[in-house]
Amino acid sequence: MQGISKRFGATQALRNVSLQAEAGRTLALIGENGAGKSTLVKVLSGALTPDSGEMSLDGYRYQPGGPHAARMAGVAMIYQELNLAPDLSVEDNIMLGIESSRWGLLQRRQQRPRVREALRLLGHPELRPATSVSRLSIAARQLIEIARALVSDARVIVFDEPTSSLTRRDCQNLFQVIRRLRDEGLAVIYISHFLEEIQEICDDYCVLRDGASVGAGELAGVTEPQIVSLMVGRDIDDLFPSVPHTRQEPILDLSELTGRRFPIDVSFELHRGEVLGIAGLVGAGRTELLRCLFGLEPVRKGEIRVQGLSPAANPSARIRAGLGLVSEDRKEEGLALGMTIGDNMTLSRLQPYSKFGWLNLGRRRTAVQHWMQRMQVKAPGPQTRVGDLSGGNQQKVALARVLHQDADIFLLDEPTRGIDVGTKSEIYRVMGELAAAGKGVIFVSSYLAELLAVCDRVGVMSRGRLREIRPADQWSEEAVMSVAVAGAGE
Amino acid sequence: MNDSLRPDGKTNPGEVPSAAGDGEPVMAGNSSPWFDWKSIASILGPFVALAAVCLFFAIADAMQPDGGRFATQRNLQANAVRTATVAVAALGMTVIIIAGGIDLSAGTALALAATVLAWSLKNDYSVPLALAFTMGAGCAAGLVNGVLISALRVVPFIVTLGTMTIYLGVAKMIANETTVRPDKATQVPDWLGGFLSLRPQSLYAGFPLGVWFALLLAVALACFLRYSVFGRHVVALGSNEATARLCGIPVRRAKILVYTLGGLFTGIAGLYQFSRLSAGNPTSGTGMELRIIAAVVIGGGSLEGGRGSVVGTLTGAAIMAVIESGCTQLGLPNPVQDVILGVIIVAAVAVDQLRLRGGAA
């Protein structure tokens, strides 16, 4: 790609970006949210036409008219959100749109060897082509997507944040697959926020900032802080800003809390001025724990006491009791994407702007602008639709809602997933400030480094049970992992 | 909760924060709530369509040998009166559709309310009591829909498909399977008889009472949707129900209220229907629900929820009325009218989709 530029209205999304991916190598495309990665990838995959610039593939001019044309030309995308038809079989999904047929009839006998070959190439010949995709795990579904790229003879495969919903072991398997693809002579472009991952599997890198490429080259010999400073344009000497806070009296008390399936017999105390981390594998019951706390899922047994009282088991009573939840699923649950920033921020607490049920929109607007500034939400104004924002800015809006709610207990479920380093750092700072202001924070994350750096205490869950809580400085990443996988045999 | 515990030590969010409050709005200009291009475009869309339809029929009519009847005050009045019933019911449907629901029982519930009104008047109940019964019937119909949808967690389409026939049956029971005709001279109050009448003595500033009342309702509903807490809850519910639940909005109660409010408008529309027919006919509302829904959809309402507007709905109802009367004046046969109306509905939704996609890119 040479000198690609793209403009949306007043925003220059890409400014003269050049990118070179070589066959048999893995290129990391790095940048904060809103840096232009997705736009660049959309240009590459034919979803957008650049205003200027040229692309070539294998030395020939490459000008895809649309995603299908790009796929036919040999550029395949593996998206964050999987694009599979769950009710069709593995084989049908892989061959979707490129079925072998004669007179409109499927030629399964012809296509099945190609499907088998693709799965074998990925190192997973055990996946049966006739299985329905709805019965596969997320990791396996991702493999199907990759296989789909392989059968269409892809030359370039782009992975957009492929590991954000995978467990650690699945990640390792995926890396194996990516290495295989590379060794087969494909060019792989890998987009991720996890710099460790990039160090692990990529050969080259290209950093985007504010729509321009600010650095590219071989990864070997480049350190993580160097990349981070390229990304944010300044040195983040402290990715985890520490805000001093002291632990005060207990504010939340759980005893033997048991939900419909998970959690099982979870007991702990959360104090004012404390950040409590919850670690565990995906599916260990961490999200269910928070949802039980917030009244979104039924409690079968046990007690929840907030400052000594037990509020009714529905979200509005829990909000009144001082709890606030940031959902792990920003798009499906966390935010109403069709509504404005202002609506999303204030939906859970409209009382300050209402009298007898009528809203004072002017006053609300001023308050929303204040919170947008404080959280550094980058948007034209409070009337902007949340769906038009980048992931990091959406997350800031979701967090601002809970701050605006003036909660005492913050339940944060994977609040830093899929957002850029700069925003992550801001979120850590906000958590520290909350603790310093005497709030209690429960922080669920699958990213151990941040849990251990930000939290005062960390508890590890597995199979719905809270196995162990220790002060953060008495944990190591290995120790957390060994507890997290310990209950796996039950 | 304690305001002194604010993390930043700043003001309570409800108060005007000093940083942005000193007369200088932070982001003034292009994003004022009064002047938002995107929402203006979505409001103007149906208007442009209405203007185009009017222009078409005005020209086509003027070219007729005996033309010149379209662009008259008389025609405007007739159209306003003809569309009033559907328009009022469509106001209620707007709320339901914005909240992400649908009400297929609106047509038969409307006829049920009209039948109840006719029955009450025929049985010599006092007028206020008869009106209370009518509104009560409308609200009850909506309430039943709302409770069933919330409690059984069945999709609104199916629930209201069922209640549609239930309300038809109930209306027939009340009417003893005939049409209920209260005596016009003695049992129907004068104002109700002339509610949608074009006789000179029932006109106020050019229109009968019913048209003015419909406009008043529309203004009230538009304000309610925009400036009330419940209005925000309705949009949130349709935009993303999970988010609404997360934000502590009592989702079930809100849904029940939405359908009951829709039922209130259906009840009022029943009164309009009675005034037009001077009788309560249980089957007079059959099929009307589709015209009601069409009005909302032509006006930019989305069946996925979260989008729709009162102004759009009124325009949508007006477009349908103009097409019908225009076709009649041009002497086009009824089947042709049906086809044209159908084309307009599909075109309206298609244009809306195109605009959405254009706006998102």
Which terms summarize this structure?
heterodimer, A: 490 residues, six-stranded mixed beta sheet, 33% helix, globular, B: 361 residues, mainly alpha, 1% strand, disordered N terminus
Order of helices and strands of chain B: HHHHHHHEEHHHHHHH
Distance between the termini of chain A: 52 Å
Poorly predicted regions of chain B: 1-35
How helix-rich are the residues of chain B, as a percent range? 55-70%
Please give the radius of gyration of chain A in angstroms: 24 Å
Structural class assignment of chain B = mainly alpha
Largest sheet of chain A: 6 strands, mixed
- Helical content of chain A (DSSP H or I, runs of 4+): 25-40%
Task: Describe what this molecule looks like in 3D.
- The complex is a heterodimer of chains A (490) and B (361).
- With 490 residues, chain A is an alpha/beta fold.
- In chain A, 33% of the residues lie in helices and 24% in strands.
- Chain A has 17 helices and 24 strands.
- In chain A, a hairpin with a 2-residue loop joins strand 5 and strand 6.
- In chain A, helix 4 packs across helix 5.
- The mean pLDDT of chain A is 85.
- In chain B, strand 1 (203-204) and strand 2 form a beta hairpin.
- A two-stranded antiparallel ribbon of chain B has the order 1-2.
- The chains are: A alpha/beta (490), B mainly alpha (361).
In short:
Chain A is 33% helix and 24% strand. Chain A has 490 residues and is an alpha/beta fold.
Secondary structure layout:
The complex is a heterodimer of chains A (490) and B (361).
Chain A: E1 2-8, E2 11-17, E3 26-31, H1 37-44, E4 52-54, E5 56-57, E6 60-61, H2 67-73, E7 75-78, H3 90-94, E8 101-102, E9 105-106, H4 108-121, H5 138-151, E10 156-160, H6 168-183, E11 187-191, H7 195-201, E12 204-209, E13 212-218, H8 224-232, E14 250-259, E15 266-271, E16 274-280, H9 286-293, E17 299-306, H10 315-320, E18 323-326, H11 330-334, H12 341-346, E19 354-355, E20 358-359, H13 361-374, H14 391-404, E21 409-413, H15 421-436, E22 440-444, H16 448-454, E23 457-462, E24 465-471, H17 477-484
Parallel strand pairs in A: 3-11, 3-12, 7-10, 10-11, 16-22, 16-23, 18-21, 21-22
Antiparallel strand pairs in A: 1-2, 1-4, 5-6, 8-9, 12-13, 14-15, 14-17, 19-20, 23-24
Helix pairs in contact in A: 4-5
Chain B: H1 18-21, H2 37-62, H3 73-98, H4 106-122, H5 127-152, H6 156-175, H7 190-193, E1 203-204, E2 207-208, H8 209-227, H9 229-239, H10 241-246, H11 251-277, H12 288-298, H13 310-329, H14 334-360
Antiparallel strand pairs in B: 1-2
